[in-house]
Design brief:
Elements: H1 4-8, E1 32-33, H2 46-55, H3 61-81, E2 87-89, H4 97-104, H5 124-132, E3 134-136, E4 139-141, E5 146-148, E6 155-157, H6 172-183, E7 188-193, H7 195-203, H8 207-231, E8 236-240, H9 250-267, E9 271-275, H10 285-289, E10 295-299, H11 307-313, E11 319-325, H12 335-349, E12 354-358, H13 377-382, H14 386-401, H15 403-421, H16 429-436, H17 449-460, H18 477-487, H19 493-514, H20 529-535, E13 537-541, E14 548-551, E15 554-556, E16 560-567, H21 573-577
Length: 578
């Protein structure tokens, strides 16, 4: 194989699969439920804790590996208990799954030395150095570039591909996790970032010239991986190709046919599922459905309109994995709409050719809404985190097989959804009146810049280059302790506020003493800026465990915006006046 053209020549008629590929042929059989991935941080951010203790020297490699293994096992067991038939493995990562893929295929820059993505003693320093910088062999190294994963708030490490890159397989991580799950009595479907998405995400602007040169060698390594996974007992492998939901030229489309022809040959009896998500496939739909694989996953939340064309175009013996509930949104699904799409697919394809799943990996959701004890029950009932998404899938699967048995649960879910859409907490007439009264003139300043500048100069008298700290001062251990005591009810609000005011006075005095021109009050009253304002705004709620991974150990806890937003009272005025 000398390049993309060599792969393209292997494209032939997609093989027909004579046997059912995903389930029972019986019309009333329960469809199989799968997830494309599950949150890897743990319900209590156990991964964050383990990583930070390891990086600070308080947890050795063996301890980190043990805690990571416990997180994985708990995730598998949770999903199996919730009714998932195709439980994913290799969706866990100590830092980032794209970085894991780079290590798996040997795309490790020489300066980092050996790198391991699965916690072995050899290479863990190099792995974390690529992710966040660090010292390797006495040299301080910068991290690789990091950028956003498509249009999500997750960030991936951009692999560094050398011009003459030689790919070499290190299958330790996927094989280790497959074996771990097997030892726990759980059969899993390994998840791997597909070869073409991996290269395009790594090469980005360099892709047009380099893809054809690099892809053949990379596909050979993926073929070796499939052979190893099959030998280790895997029956399915999920290959994520999210770039199929982006604009692709004819050369890249042709590369899919050639590459997956090679992979299908290497897979042998192994069933391959190609997963797409975040958008519809549009012009790439035919490319995806013609791949010689057992199943293709479509995001029917972002693009429900692609279901009918897919049903028309899908070849015999292939299955569709339907992304029916939102893997990026926290509101309960419209299960009537979900069931309509599921039943339509089963009518057209048969019961044995349909899988049900979320739109994308559940990585982008918090773990479990049921633990949000500080939210009022009504609002909590509206939410669906990763655990609730799986419960929705299981309910829909059971409803297809046993409509009467699931009728009461469906009615309850319908009532919750209708309760939210009709709630007075969602729509505030006063906010609607104010927004309706907005005019184009409100979007423009009442005076030009030159006039505003003259007014500010006269009032403030600032130098040409004023000095300022811009924002907040550090949240010291004493301030954090004070806030914790206040939240536990150990001190009253007046005492808490008085102490914060005293410390704010100290911050302002310090800035005056060192001669800053523009002073700040330090923001000691705020734990997190977003959370602080959300707590003071109607229409917003703050969770206690609604954490989502942004990258590595970095997690964010976005507020839940459930209704029209307005200020109940001034938020910052009191602190500035003080």
């Amino acid at each position: 194989m000398a390049g993309t053209d060599a792969h393209a020549t292997m494209r032939g008629p997609a093989p027909e699969l004579a046997e059912p590929v995903v389930g029972d042929r019986a019309h009333g059989a329960r469809p199989l439920v799968s997830t494309l991935g599950f949150p890897r941080i743990g319900p209590g951010r156990e991964l964050k804790s383990a990583l930070e203790r390891h990086w600070s020297g308080r947890l050795d490699r063996a301890g980190l590996a043990a805690e990571a293994s416990a997180i994985r096992r708990a995730s598998w067991e949770r999903q199996r208990a919730l009714g998932v038939d195709h439980v994913p493995s290799n969706d866990f990562s100590l830092y980032d799954h794209v970085l894991d893929t780079a290590v798996m295929v040997g795309a490790v820059p020489e300066r980092y030395g050996p790198a391991s993505a699965h916690g072995s003693a050899a290479g863990l320093e190099g792995y974390f150095a690529m992710a966040r910088g660090g010292v390797v062999d006495g040299r301080q190294l910068a991290a690789l570039e990091m950028t956003k994963w498509f249009d999500t708030n997750y960030h991936y490490i951009v692999p560094e591909i050398a011009r003459g890159q030689r790919f070499v397989l290190d299958a330790g991580k996927p094989l280790t996790e497959l074996a771990e799950a097997e030892a726990a009595g759980i059969a899993t479907r390994p998840v791997v970032l597909g070869p073409i998405s991996f290269l395009l995400l790594a090469l980005r602007s360099d892709a047009p010239g380099a893809l054809g040169r690099l892809l053949p060698g990379l596909v050979d390594v993926y073929g070796e991986l499939l052979v190893a996974l099959a030998a280790a007992g895997a029956t399915w492998v999920q290959l994520d190709e999210p770039v199929l939901a982006t604009d692709l030229d004819a050369e890249i489309r042709a590369s899919f046919a050639g590459a997956y022809g090679v992979l299908a040959d290497a897979a042998g009896p192994l069933q391959l599922l190609v997963a797409t998500y975040f958008a519809g496939l549009r012009d790439n739909l035919a490319t995806a459905l013609e791949l010689p694989v057992a199943a293709v996953h479509l995001d029917l939340v972002a693009a429900p309109e692609q279901l009918e064309p897919a049903l028309d175009a899908l070849g015999p013996g292939r299955a569709l994995s339907l992304g029916l509930v939102d893997g990026r949104n926290v509101w309960r699904a419209d299960l009537d709409g979900v069931l309509a799409r599921l039943r339509r697919a089963r009518e057209r394809l048969g019961a044995d050719r349909v899988l049900v799943g979320p739109s994308c990996s559940l990585l982008h959701l918090p773990v479990d809404a049921s633990v949000e004890s500080e939210l009022d029950p009504e609002l909590r009932s509206w939410l669906a985190f990763a655990t609730q998404r799986v419960e929705e899938l299981d309910l829909c699967a059971r409803a297809v097989a046993d409509p009467e048995g699931a009728a009461a649960e469906l009615a309850a879910a319908r009532a919750v959804r209708e309760g939210r859409t009709g709630s007075t907490r969602v729509v505030d007439p006063a906010v609607r009146r104010r927004t309706a009264a907005c005019t184009p003139e409100m979007q423009h300043r009442s005076a030009p810049y030159a006039a505003r500048r003259a007014t500010q100069d006269a009032r403030l008298g600032l130098p040409l280059l004023p000095t300022t700290t811009i924002g907040s001062f550090p949240q010291t251990p004493e301030v954090r302790s004070l806030r914790s005591r206040y939240r536990r009810g150990e001190i009253a609000a007046p005492q808490y506020e008085a102490e914060l005011q005293r410390r704010t006075d100290e911050i302002v005095s310090f800035q005056e003493q060192i001669g800053l021109d523009v002073l700040v009050h330090g923001e000691l009253e705020r734990t997190d800026m977003v959370e602080y304002f959300a707590e003071h705004l109607a229409g917003c709620a703050v969770t206690t465990a609604g954490w989502v991974q942004s990258y590595g150990s970095r997690c964010v806890k976005p507020p839940v915006v459930f209704g029209d937003v307005h200020r109940r009272a001034p938020i910052t005025v009191g602190w500035f006046r003080h």
